[in-house]
């Protein structure tokens, strides 16, 4: 024991030498590069600072508006037909956007419940509304086939349907079917961030969840299916048509912040979009918040414990985000646009991007 104490005492008395970097002197190689002394390489991108007032107007979105139930069903049937195969066209993803923003109100399926973002704020580009003429022609052809098949010698024949609601063999109302097509389109938007394999596996659950919000339209939902090759193609199409996702997420964020939605509609939007488009690539933040909720410790204490030379930049960025952006009870009225910022530009909150934070 005495020997151990002596060794400990010697260790304490032993002077600690701290290496310090001296300024470069003339004649030393480092002196040649004195102009970049103190610089830190940030890689390919410079982090962007998020601010609602300055950044929201920079986000380009398409000018789109909700469609009527009659047109939704025509366009929805066309979308389902175009989902067969292995290649997603630009027209297909554009159609999906129009259907998604036309989401029907679970409490009244005759109307849409999402409002268009304020026209005075965002950069806009026109996006042509899907053309239903081809679909109408296809429906007339289908009706003629059914009429000819069912003829039994009677002199009377059924009249050609003026609207898609008259199509034979579908007991759901036009509004119920419209609800299903819009729901499917909004769910397909998740492929921007979801992997095709996991998306395909989630379809059955998606179909079940639909029935918790909508009382009818189940025939359309239950018949929906998607091949992995098409899921892959849709994901690639979203890269080509980045404005489609940018516009959809802006509709989601705008309605989350600027409109009054009932509990049921809020839950629907959270399921369709909030779960996947919020905090993209910001696992350092979400894990820190989850850790604080589990441990119940003070956030300041937790960040202090997490801070070290390797994590300093990320911890400071989390501290800044929590103080200036996050919706907390101490700051009522805060907006949540920042949660979707990395969908619009991955250079926002770059300091807490998952790959930039040490494990």
From TrEMBL:
UniProt subcellular location: Virion
Family annotation (Pfam families): Rhabdo_ncap_2 (PF03216)
Broad class of where this protein is predominantly found: virion
Record InterPro entries: Rhabdo_ncap_2 (IPR004902)
Name this polypeptide is given: Nucleocapsid protein
């Amino acid at each position: 024991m005495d020997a151990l104490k002596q060794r400990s005492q010697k260790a304490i008395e032993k002077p600690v030498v701290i290496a310090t970097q001296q300024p470069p002197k003339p004649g030393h190689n480092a002196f040649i590069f004195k102009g970049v002394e103190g610089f830190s390489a940030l890689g390919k991108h410079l982090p962007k600072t998020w601010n609602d007032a300055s950044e929201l107007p920079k986000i380009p979105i398409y000018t789109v508006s909700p469609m009527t139930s009659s047109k939704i069903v025509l366009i929805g049937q066309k979308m389902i037909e175009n989902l067969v195969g292995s290649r997603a066209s630009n027209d297909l993803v554009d159609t999906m956007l129009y259907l998604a923003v036309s989401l029907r109100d679970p409490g009244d399926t005759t109307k849409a419940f999402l409002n268009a973002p304020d026209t005075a704020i965002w950069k806009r580009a026109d996006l042509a509304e899907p053309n239903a003429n081809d679909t109408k022609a296809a429906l007339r052809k289908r009706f003629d086939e059914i009429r000819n098949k069912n003829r039994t010698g009677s002199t009377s024949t059924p009249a050609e349907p003026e609207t898609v609601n008259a199509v034979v063999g579908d007991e759901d109302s036009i509004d119920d079917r419209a609800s299903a097509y819009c729901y499917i389109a909004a769910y397909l938007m998740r492929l921007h961030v979801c992997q095709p394999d996991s998306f395909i596996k989630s379809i059955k659950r998606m179909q079940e969840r639909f029935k918790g919000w909508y009382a009818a339209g189940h025939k359309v939902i239950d018949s929906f299916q998607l091949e992995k090759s098409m899921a892959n193609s849709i994901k690639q199409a979203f890269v080509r048509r980045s404005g489609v996702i940018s516009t959809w997420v802006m509709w989601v964020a705008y309605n989350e912040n600027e409109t009054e939605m009932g509990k049921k509609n809020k839950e629907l939007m959270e399921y369709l979009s909030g779960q996947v488009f919020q905090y993209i690539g910001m696992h350092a933040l979400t894990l820190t918040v989850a850790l604080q909720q589990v441990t119940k410790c003070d956030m300041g204490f937790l960040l202090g414990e997490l801070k070290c030379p390797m994590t300093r930049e990320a911890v400071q960025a989390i501290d800044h985000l929590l103080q200036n952006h996050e919706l907390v009870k101490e700051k009522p009225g805060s907006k949540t646009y920042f949660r979707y910022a990395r969908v619009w530009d991955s250079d926002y909150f770059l300091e807490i991007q998952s790959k930039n934070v040490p494990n």
